[in-house]
Design brief:
The chain contains 6 helices and no strands. By secondary structure, the protein is mostly helical. It is elongated.
């Protein structure tokens, strides 16, 4: 395969990743919005649409493996393909968290949420923003932006701790709220993990640019 054709394949793979990232962003937003509005129909859609996210990941992986096997890329190009493989997995996992939130919504049924959802949608917005910025950093090979994404994870952790403490207070004061509080704790945990995955994507961007695997050490709340 001529070099120019190989570059075309790499760009196409990156475009596939951007599409997958967009699918995942929409899934998280849709899942949390459906939870907030208690729209079980939309929650079911989120669960069903996770199949498309899975399929997109598999297509990306197959293309990466094929290029590695047939072109035997070296150095920088190999790093890109390895990073693309890992990023596709991270994105698919975030999609799983959206699916998980959809399932929690169905478990809650017609029952209203224990409390008005304020911090949980904020967590979702921050996680989505982190993911979007991670993908922008990938396109622009922007280490500074990737580092900033990693540091933003602290904000999501702080919100998670806030949600945890508030829901724990509900449970202590009234044991009858335990089940409904637990549902929301599960949702908050899924969003906290989604932000962690976005951080992993940012770290892969740094790997693509520098060739070094780096875990960004940020303070944990």
């Amino acid at each position: 395969m001529p070099r120019v054709d190989f570059d075309v394949h790499l760009r196409a793979l990156q475009d596939d990743l951007l599409v997958l990232g967009s699918m995942v962003e929409k899934a998280i937003a849709k899942a949390v919005d459906a939870l907030k509005r208690r729209d079980l129909k939309v929650s079911r859609q989120v669960i069903q649409e996770d199949d498309y996210i899975d399929q997109k990941r598999f297509v990306i992986e197959e293309k990466c493996v094929e290029l590695i096997a047939t072109q035997q890329p070296l150095a920088r190009d190999l790093r890109k393909l390895i990073a693309f493989l890992h990023i596709s997995v991270e994105l698919e996992r975030i999609g799983d968290y959206a699916e998980g939130i959809g399932k929690i919504s169905l478990m809650m049924g017609e029952e209203p949420t224990l409390k008005p959802l304020i911090d949980i949608p904020r967590m979702a917005e921050k996680a989505i923003d982190m993911l979007r910025r991670s993908m922008d950093a990938l396109v622009n090979r922007d280490i500074g932006e990737a580092m900033a994404v990693c540091k933003s994870d602290d904000e999501v952790d702080a919100l998670y701790d806030q949600v945890y403490r508030e829901l724990l207070t509900y449970m202590i004061q009234d044991p009858k709220t335990i089940q409904r509080a637990t549902y929301l704790l599960w949702v908050a945990h899924d969003l906290e993990r989604a932000a962690d995955r976005a951080t992993n994507v940012a770290e892969r961007v740094i790997y693509v640019v520098t060739g070094k695997m780096t875990e960004i050490n940020v303070s944990k709340y």
